[in-house]
Design a protein that fits this description.
- This protein has about 70 residues and is α+β, with helices and mostly antiparallel strands.
- The chain has two helices and four strands.
- A hairpin with a 4-residue loop joins strand 2 and strand 3.
Length: about 70
């Protein structure tokens, strides 16, 4: 599972949009958003780059995956 820092994620709408964007390209992905730390944990066959691009496409900045 990889974690991505999403500094602008601040509410339930944000988490829903991010989860929807990731699941649009991998319906089997497990996505867990933590508003407190503003991180998104993703378990998927997708590359880190593909996940980052999905988050950006949803309208959010994302930094390189954090170690988990």
């Amino acid at each position: 599972m990889n974690s991505f820092n999403v500094p602008e994620m601040s509410c339930g709408h944000c988490t829903a949009a991010i989860e929807k964007a990731i699941k649009a390209i991998d319906p089997t992905a497990t996505v867990s958003c933590d508003l407190g730390s503003r991180t998104v944990a993703v378990e998927s066959f997708l590359s880190d780059r593909a996940v980052s691009e999905a988050i950006r496409d949803a309208g959010y900045d994302v930094t390189a995956p954090a170690a988990t």
